[in-house]
Amino acid sequence: MAFQTYRLLVCTVTLLALLSLFSLGEGQYKGFRKFNQVQDTRKEAEFEEQWFIQKLDHFNGADSRVWKQRYFVNEAFYRPGGPVFLMIGGEGPANPAWMQHGTWLTYAEKLGALCLMLEHRFYGKSHPTADLSTENLHFLSSRQALADLAHFRTVMAASRGLTNRKWVAFGGSYPGSLAAWFRLKYPHLVHASVATSAPVHATVNFPEYLEVVWRSLASENVECPTLVKKASDTLIERLKDPTTYENITKHFNLCSPLQIQTEMDSAYFLETLAGNFMDVVQYNEDNRGFEGVVGTNITIKVLCGVMSDISLGDPYARYAAVARLMMDTFSLKCLDANFNNYVREMTNTSWDGPAAGGGRQWVYQTCSEFGFYQSTESPNQPFTGFPLEYQVKQCADFYNISAEQLAEAVAQTNEYYGGYDIRSSRIVFPNGSIDPWHALGITQDITQDLPAVFIRGTAHCANMYPARNEDLPQLSLARDHVFLLLQQWLKQ
User: Fold this and answer.
1) How many other C-beta atoms are found inside a 10 Å radius of the C-beta of residue 484?
2) Helix crossing, 263-282 with 388-399: angle to 10°?
3) Can 435 be counted among the known catalytic residues?
4) Annotation says 460 is catalytic
5) pLDDT, tens digit, for every residue of 208-257?
6) All domains of the chain, ordered by start, with CATH?
């Protein structure tokens, strides 16, 4: 959320929570994996939601339709003459907890910044259209989102007397990419950007994600990913024999009897189980608790401990134990691994639908712009059974987008933004080595003015979360380094 198939990013402000391992009805979805889907209503009351009039289509002057976009303001640290910090929302509801916590506020206090957070169109309460029909989703794109940011920045600057202030964009995960692209495409509006865990290169097939999962598990216990692979391979063999389905249903506490009638059914089931490991690796040992997120106590160390526990039985039995542990952690009575249920939820176009928290929207963006499909098509990873074809077919099933259209859309995205070849200035790219998304990010300096901050041993968006005593020394140093860069750039 995170994704089942489309584990994305989600890390900050909005938190994608992209589809996670279980049913969409639990408020999870595919993509960047559980970004900030969980809202803490106690904090919401302290920062009143405000509304900004936004154009539906920024690229059609003949279309005069408008809608209301949600945003939040924190003026507590602002000093006259100070900069303006703009936190960019992503593939999930904007979480007002970020107006009270997070590294960006530490920077704001030191630099006297005004802090704004803008929710992404089509997520949270920012509803540009009457429903989520595919026809309406044509207005959902990173390009429209950047134009939203540009118009918001222009109008807010004029109305608040901030036109001559220096604006800094912040974002993590997909919003991290938006932060980089905002500076790239609108350099006259954005003085600098902090683009954390930003996958700037679009790709249809992203098998490297699971390769990083292997390495991240092995960093805890060299045998761990091998045990996961043995378990996955055993399950694949059992799925070939329908007489095993009753036992598999019991072992994994499925909500309904396992039925494998198509390759899509088996792929969805296998991906759902793999998602347990993918989610934990992506957010390993992070500090998301302030957002109201549960499960942060489940780490790579915990999962590898279960996979190494011979008292639980063979690797297959331990794999099932991991699934039950995750269900207990998220208070789920059973695991919904039924692909037909998933299709039904993802094709519901109502704003009240089970995938309207971000799942239907984010998967549309992957089909129409980014790809990012975490397939099992590399031999150097622990899972089997959810190939690229399974993920691409969902684009056709959900939105009538063909494989050829997907490939063309991804090529256009890289052509428009430049992929890894970013030509700009004053953008810093923090990434964590444990985070699988770093494989599509900037992990080495492009130029002195486009530096990378590669943080060993940390996961997705770790540098954005509030500091704590348990943080690795290199994480604390990374936060300090970003601050020094901002200090330097704001003097330019």
Assistant:
1) 10
2) 100
3) yes
4) yes
5) 999 999 999 999 999 999 999 999 999 999 999 999 999 999 999 999 99
6) 41-203+417-490 (3.40.50.1820), 205-410 (1.20.120.980)
